[in-house]
Write a structure and sequence with these properties.
Layout (H helix, E strand, L loop, with lengths): L2 E3 L18 E6 L1 H4 L11 E5 L7 E3 L22 E7 L3 E2 L13 E5 L18 E2 L1 H9 L4 E4 L13 H8 L3 E4 L10 E6 L10 E3 L3 E3 L1
Parallel strand pairs: 5-7, 6-8, 7-9, 9-10
Antiparallel strand pairs: 1-13, 2-3, 4-10, 4-12, 5-11, 11-13
Helix pairs in contact: 2-3
Length: about 210
Amino acid sequence: MTLIDLSHPIEHDMVTYPGLPGPRISDHMSFEDSVGRYAEGTEFAIGAVSMVANTGTYLDTPAHRYRAGHDLSGLPLERCVDLPAVVVEATGDIGPDQLPGEDLTGHAVLLRTGWDRHWRTEHYGDPSHPFLTADGARHLVARGAVLVGIDTVNIDDTSGDERPAHTLLLGGEVLVLEHLTGLDRLPARGARLTAAPPAVVGMATFPVRAFARI
């Protein structure tokens, strides 16, 4: 068995999405601060992080788009753990012509565009990034996908203010996994994807440690 990490590490003050603040990572209690609180030679460190939910590689639940949609605490693990993955090499406006035509019931569909090569550069957030079209989203919902991931700054076209891919996927109870990396290391078929977030009540999106098992 081989495990392949598909997530970007989260670093202090890094930019994930243009316009959103980077995470603030600090010590709540450092090793030095703990001296004297415990037995001699016993030290602990407790970290602290403040960040927006859309940081790093993250998973969107329906509550990200819909007020009545379920949040992270309502997410069944079987929809984000050990899913059979179909990896699609795609670029530009990703429509049905670039997507699998077979039944995808219970599968994760991962769109490999290579855009992750721009991560942590100004070009990463450029609206010219590849994205899933409305027709492409309808196609994946109709074929039973339970999760759709992509290695770009957004699964939607960001040149305008509409977000049809989020609207259609999340409206169809299909999870959205954005800012993936390393999809070139996966086969087109045969990998199993896990991307489980913590069950935070009232939160719709959260970073995940996405990985594939081969």
